[in-house]
Amino acid sequence: MKEVFEAAAPGTVALTGLSCLLGPATSRGGKSVVLSILTPSGTYDERLASSKVDRNMQTEFRCLAYAPRGVEPLERAAQVLADVEEIVVENETWGGLAIQTRLGAYEIIVEDTADRLVDVTLFATVTYRTRRDDPRNQS
C-alpha cells in the first residue's frame, strides 16, 4: 500500500511532497504532507469457505497536510480526501494481494485554522484470502 501511494502522489493535486508511513504519524518530519497507513492489530474478521479463509482487515489512511496561504483548510482537506479516495479506488486489489477494498466513513479535523493543519482519515475494509493451512498465517 505504501508503494502505491508513493508512486501515485506526484500526479495528484493535494498529495505532492508526500511522505508515506506504515504506522502512526507523530509529526510531519519536514514534509508538506504525511500519510500514515494503519491496520490496528486484531481488527479483522474472517469467513471460512472450504480450505480458504477470507479476512476483512480494517484499515485507516490518515493524512496530515498544511493548507497553503490563500486556500481554506476545509478546501485543502477536501482535496486531500479526494486524492486519497481516488488512489484507494484505483488500487482496490493492491496489485492482486487483496480481493477488494470497500471505502467506509471519513473524518476531517481542523483544530485551529491559525496553524492551517488538516487531519484527514479515510476508513476502509480490505478483504483478502489465504489458505487455511498456510504456515504464514500461524502465530
Write the layout of secondary structure elements.
Blueprint: H1 2-8, E1 18-22, E2 33-38, E3 44-49, E4 52-66, H2 73-90, E5 100-109, E6 117-131
Parallel strand pairs: 1-2
Antiparallel strand pairs: 2-4, 3-4, 4-6, 5-6
Q: Can you walk through the features of this model?
A:
The protein has 139 residues and is of the alpha+beta class. The protein has a single domain (2-137), classed as STM4215-like, CATH 3.30.2000.30. The protein is built from 2 helices and 6 strands; from the N terminus they run αββββαββ. It has helices at residues 2-8, 73-90, and strands at 18-22, 33-38, 44-49, 52-66, 100-109, 117-131. Strands 1, 2, 3, 4, 5 and 6 form a 6-stranded mixed sheet that branches. The two termini are 23 Å apart. Residues 26-30 have low confidence and may be disordered.
Mean pLDDT: 76
Biggest sheet character: 6 strands, mixed
Content-based structural category: alpha+beta
Strand composition percent: 35-45%
Q: What is the domain total for the residues?
A: 1
CATH topology: STM4215-like
Distance linking N and C termini: 23 Å
| Element order: H for helix, E for strand | HEEEEHEE
Radius of gyration, in Å, reads 17 Å
The best one-word shape is: elongated
Low-confidence stretches: 26-30
Q: How large is the count of helical segments?
A: 2
Instruction: Supply the CATH class.
Output: Alpha Beta
At CATH level 2, the architecture is 2-Layer Sandwich
> Which quaternary structure do these chains form?
single chain
Work out the helicity level: 10-25%
- Total strand segments: 6
